[in-house]
Amino acid sequence: MSATEKYRALIDMAHRHGVANFSASEENGVLTLSGSTTDAVQQEMLKAWQIIDPSLSAGDLVFAITADGQGSGQTYTVKPGDTLSRIAAQYGTTWQNIYEHNRDTIKNPDLIYPGQVIRIP
User: Fold this and answer.
1) What PANTHER family does the record tag this protein with (predicted)?
2) What's the Cα-to-Cα distance from 63 to each of 74, 96, 103, 107, rounded to whole Å?
């Protein structure tokens, strides 16, 4: 099964929601999805991706769909043992997205501390 076939639901979702400048291209078994949309649609697509690939680690999808930056308005207090990846999975987003929205408080995405309050995009 090609990556395009595997992630057909995400492609269809992007078309259904009118993701701006949407592009889907597959090369060497890796599908790249790009475009821009609202935070809500981006989150919905990320949740759908997690259903298809629960660990988000198959390595056959580059998810480059950006959101309008309005965010969810939620915050999260880091607990012992947390990682940005684990927090992102709880909220249906990516660690990169959380990091980008918190660059003012997170200097290194591999170093977060219990008690630290971060914004959830």
Assistant:
1) PHAGE-LIKE ELEMENT PBSX PROTEIN XKDP, POTASSIUM BINDING PROTEIN KBP
2) 22, 11, 20, 23
In single-letter form, the type of residue at position 41 comes to V
Report the pLDDT value the prediction gives residue 71, as an integer from 0 to 100: 55
Domains of the chain with bracketed CATH: 1-69 (3.30.70.1770), 71-121 (3.10.350.10)
Instruction: Give the single-character DSSP code of 7.
Output: T
Q: What would the DSSP string read from start to end of 51-105?
A: HHSTTS-SS-EEEEEEE-S----EEEE--TT--HHHHHHHHTS-HHHHHHHTTTT
pLDDT tens for each residue of 3-45: 999 999 999 999 998 888 899 999 999 999 998 887 778 888 9
Cβ atoms of 7 and 52 within 8 Å: the answer is yes
- Reduced to 3 states (helix: H, G, I; strand: E, B; else coil), residue 1 is coil
Question: Distance (Å, rounded) from C-alpha 2 to C-alpha 28?
Answer: 10
From 80, 92, 87, select the one nearest 109 (Cα to Cα).
87
